[in-house]
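re the bet — no i am not wrong, look at it urself. input seq straight from the record:
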Amino acid sequence: MDFSVDKPKPSDRSVFRLNIGRALLNQREDEYLQIWDKDFIKRENRVRYGRLRDIDKEKEIEFEITRILRQNFSFRFIELDVQQKRMGREGLESALIGTAAHCNLCKPSSRWLGNYSPKKQIRESGLWLVQHLKAHEINEEDKRIILNAINKR
């Protein structure tokens, strides 16, 4: 990972990493959360707030996020040929998030790091994001698309 005051931190390019970092800092009651929340992709923020950055601290947090991801997560994917079926309000991403968010059986443990998130939607939903939490659940057409994609592999 490339770390510099003149460049965005890796988590600026991943809301997933950004939210895990927020929870870590909030759990520790670390005031650096205020700086962590700045979007350093924007040049104006790098100019305005760059002098407040602690690159060594950011490295430590980013490496801890990587460790958490490697030890506690596994990922699966399905390939979809049509872009509009993947992303956006009407895409499968939205419907899958909506399905998990509406699931009464799908609750995080009391030890889940997300319980320390400063974002209420993350704490309440048990998911590491805030977009699409109120989206519709997958329907029969979505199920067909998913099964077809899985069976193509």
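see?? The chain has a mean pLDDT of 90. told u. also The chain has seven helices and no strands. so pay up
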